[in-house]
Amino acid sequence: MTIAALTFCGCSPGTSGPGAAAPVPTEDTGERIYSGNCLPCHQQNGQGIPNVYPSLAGSPVVLGDPQELALWVIRSRRPATLPAGRYPSAMPPFGWLKAEDAAALLTYVRANFGNAAPPVDAATVARALGE
Ligand code: HEC
After folding, report:
1. What global pTM score does this model have?
2. Quick check: CB of 58 below 6 Å from ligand 1?
3. Chunked mean pLDDT (size 10), the chain, 131 residues
4. DSSP letter, residue 11
């Protein structure tokens, strides 16, 4: 059993072989999604651009209720801690994010840029979305 489980690693190409990481690289997934989708506006360091895109560092939305955070990012449902009209443009909804990927992404933004909020799991995201 153990041998079979090890053989069926499920690792992405380039990460297999002795000493490879566990097959669920949550941290990497979150970082990859951030870099591909959020970075152009919120920047590499999460600080955004003053008066154009808000900083995610110390943001009450990022650090607050994980379900409100998920609803904002995925459905653009505005939390009370994010008053409308402070920024000149709108953030697009990321409705295509699967609960698992969203959880990895939200965990990433809550644990980087100087933030230190607890991780978010897929079940929490799914509950927020009513799935
Ligand atoms: C096209 C630019 C753009 C992209 C891409 C973008 N955002 Fe935003 N984001 C914004 C803007 C603009 C606001 C402020 C919106 C408002 O107040 O109406 C915002 C607000 C936020 C907030 C609330 C911050 C606060 O002030 O407390 C969070 C959290 C957030 N974005 C996360 C993300 C995540 C995660 C991604 C990637 C999946 C992302 N954003 C992608 C432009 C963007």
Report:
1. 0.85
2. no
3. 43 47 68 98 98 98 98 98 96 98 98 98 97 85
4. P
